[in-house]
TrEMBL record:
GO MF assignments: peptidyl-tRNA hydrolase activity
Name recorded for this polypeptide: peptidyl-tRNA hydrolase
Catalytic reactions on record: an N-acyl-L-alpha-aminoacyl-tRNA + H2O = an N-acyl-L-amino acid + a tRNA + H(+)
Entry keyword set: Hydrolase
Protein's organism: Clostridioides difficile (Peptoclostridium difficile)
Length: 126
């Protein structure tokens, strides 16, 4: 079974509503990036169609098998390491309860249970 993993910045003490909004940004941006990556990889219509079908199959498999999203907690220092490794990082605009440019969460991606990197396995549930 595949699961999506999102790490929340535990140093910020965000309200439950703020955490929910940041998780929504992390999921939306992840899917948005996947779609754009798929479309921009090739300029050939047939290739794009096949890649979109593959993406649809991956997302359908994730959805049909429980579409589990694990929300984990991590210190900002760990989130910075994830950001440096290229994981999708959500940075707040500072319009509500936390300072501008704060890293609120990182989408670590979707993994099969036997493929989860050890750095993710060490994190605890939020």
């Amino acid at each position: 079974m595949k699961k999506m993993y999102i790490a929340i910045n535990s140093d910020l003490n965000m309200s439950p509503g703020k955490v929910g909004a940041q998780v929504a940004h992390a999921v939306y941006d992840y899917l948005y990036d996947k779609i754009l990556d798929t479309v921009s990889c090739s300029y050939e219509t047939e290739t794009i169609a096949h890649e979109l079908i593959d993406l649809k199959c991956d997302l359908t498999s994730f959805k049909n098998n429980g579409d589990t999203i694990c929300i984990l907690k991590a210190k900002e220092a760990q989130l910075l390491k994830f950001k440096e490794k290229g994981y999708l990082t959500i940075v707040d605009r500072g319009l509500t309860e936390i300072p501008k440019n704060s890293i609120t969460c990182v989408n670590l991606g979707i993994f099969n249970e036997d493929e989860i990197p050890s750095t993710i396995k060490r994190l605890r549930l939020y």
